């Protein structure tokens, strides 16, 4: 296996200077004496013709004037090492003070002229550096300094550029006029390049600015690095419109002066029109900008289509996106450059390329590799542990450009390594294989919603690019989702788009889970004209978040004056948070079923309990459909006592072990006796067992399949940019968190049980294994494929195994997972894989999994209560006489059993070995039933059925399946087995009546989000459906919806007990009852309808396993293939992403029962039926007129890389 490059790159080409800053500037002035050093277009002097023209100084003039100023300052007691604070605009005097300070060997301090208007902030800044000299551009600024510090502050020398009208301040002109005759004599200052030469302040995005001292070493290194990277020569002009107190400005000014180039000040402060004129009047222009500057220049009405004199646009100061590069390119530069740096590190990377080449990248913008003697490292967040190239982590910066620490402040982000200074940036990024840096955003700005890290910049980009609206996105606390996404917009161009339309734009681009829950207008709602910005143009998210919270608090305070609507508004906000719809669009009297799905209902009930400590059930929401009725119902419900022992027990993360409960003592002894043989064979004893859980009725029989690999899944996975040690550690962490991954099974005389083994290496070594290296990712698909003793997991367990396969000459790892369905279902495994991706990426983990033991114990205890008996009775009544409809079963059975995938070693139910060759794939070597087919069709009106009639897409799909079954069999009814998620607490629904409720001392599941139950809750239901006369499409689908509600109400009914009671019948077993039971047994594995819900819309699963594979997404978990070896004949798997209108249909089947051509024909009939049912012109037509051919395009999209049965 090839070595994996670590995420570290160091520019070793740059060497540190041996002279101080004053000497370096003097040498440049001597070399370029007669060239133009500085032009200030907004300052004028008299010319020879008696007019005025912009001030323009040569290097000799600038050098001479600054030396004279330095001598006069020296005469006034300013010595080497003194601190000279400057509050100056972009003007000649700024350059004079910078050069003079360098000549003196003093420390130049740039202070934001905007900061001094804030008295407390100004005092903090000035007191942190204790200036000996202070120079201000105006009397107004001078007065602000006095107000902040007081006139008696120990600053001996105070100077103002304009005529002084402030007591205690002298004019800078007066100081220059008093210069001695020896103005050209060089200053004698210490020649130590490591002494502090300048001090910058951090941008203060968190509200506190810190002082960053820099030396000639850091400044010269960066200036030389930039001049080499951008090929800046004496023939270039730097258009300097960046503020002189910012590091980005100073390093570009110094770069120009050390190269003999010209520096142009267009205006005292940035003005887009002035910058445009400066570009047009200059030649070979290099334009350093922050994003806001580029946007202002591009939008200016006087900008030309292209700037003929523009050589290079350099963008920095904030996260750079492709859209910003496109905007830069629209100005017509020959080259584009993106760079990265901080006040602490100056500029450490830059990427200069031809404009046309810069626009060919991906979603992430390359910021180049290390320059200026810098080192870039990518480490695990919160540590100094180096990651591999391609892995996303925290950016650490070191080397020559990096300062030695904050002034007067020890900070954990600063450290020394390998003889160099380093600083932790707080930025999220990665290095690619070539060592080039990509920065994705600030860690502190990430929004944590539902356990997922959401980058605000993604949402901001969509809003800006698609609408032209300037937007900033922040997260605010939300009891439902953790944090709610809030967009604050500023309508710069007068664009008036409704908030719902803005949400829809985000939803279509990024998915509904990233759609803002709230949108506020910066001026109209928050009362501010401009976004809070740092001097470098970075948004101050902390300030913006505070503005937002204050507005929300104020709004809520106003609403609290209307007590009768307060609960309504709170419930509306919960629905808004879960669905991404605006609260304003959710009327208190509209049905929530017009915009929600079943998973959202579950989430809502969980959120309501968390907020109010009162219970609502999904059944309640079926009856109380509006927010108003839900609020009234909730007000009448009794609140649980949150301090009670019962509540504390329910909310505990670790319920008492089932095996230690006194009532289970005898049963545990039987389980122990049954388990000891298996435990001893693996070197374990009963004392090693962590716990015991009862299995549910559906899961138990899966451990007794018809072949060794029954109910198995084989998943081929690639983990990009991850080494063996890291993935091994991640898998150990993963398996430790989820007890069922460490389970085996055992049975006593009556029941099946999980035995949970310890999270120790001695056990996990049986489950986390290392295999041989492979040549490429695709080799995972064939690695030891169908080897009888290896390619499966089997009872009694373990039921989870992963094999780690290094991929030669790559930084990637192949994984082959073997899963048995006794420990997972479709809802939980997607969450498990999502969590594995988080662990690998060292992201914050979701802690929302709820112990499966609690659910399992509750289900086992309640199997004998009245509600359970009602559920069994319901199903028995519905299934009586089913044997008379045996001719209506589809698909037809050609050979014994229903088995997907390799069926080696199959047996009949009575234990007889199956005949070799009897179960032969009908398509021979071209059999694809295990991989399956996947088609898609656009159904643009399908959501209209939900909006108008509360009929959700899954019911439309089930209706199509019902009608197709009747069409294919010619029968009067359709018999389907449906997979139900079972994501509800068993047998506590109020429909059973008071007599059906459990004893109040039992666990009723209050406060549990059923989606987070950490194991399989899936159940089966057999449904029989007929058409009633000429009922219309809407009537037919509405009836299916009502039947589905009943099925869900009784979804936990144990199928084995249903069959037993069906067979026994009230008067004892009879030929008919036995026939009914036999038919039910025979169809459980024949045809299954499985609508797996889109939990991403309610769980914020921003990326499932198999979908975290975008370019530049290092250490991502990529699903290559899913092979399902379940004991099933045919599985329909339709799916529709929330707010999407393209329905996808995946099917898998038993190759010994069906040809692929038969399956393809059935799938096209299914999709044609869905399309016909979805069209509004058919809604009032009889459902029996449904068509199974369509002119709409059906696309073969191939199996999608996500979970499927």
TrEMBL record:
One of its GO terms (molecular function) is medium-chain fatty acid-CoA ligase activity. This is AMP-dependent synthetase/ligase domain-containing protein. InterPro entries: ACP-like_sf, AMP-bd_C_sf, AMP-binding_CS, AMP-dep_synth/lig_dom, ANL_N_sf, CAT-like_dom_sf. GO terms for biological process: fatty acid metabolic process; secondary metabolite biosynthetic process. It comes from the Eukaryota. The lineage of its organism: Eukaryota, Fungi, Dikarya, Ascomycota, Pezizomycotina. Residues 640-660, 987-1015 are annotated as: Disordered. Residues 26-407 form the AMP-dependent synthetase/ligase domain. It comes from Penicillium salamii. Pfam families: AMP-binding. Keywords: Phosphopantetheine, Phosphoprotein. CDD domains: AFD_class_I.
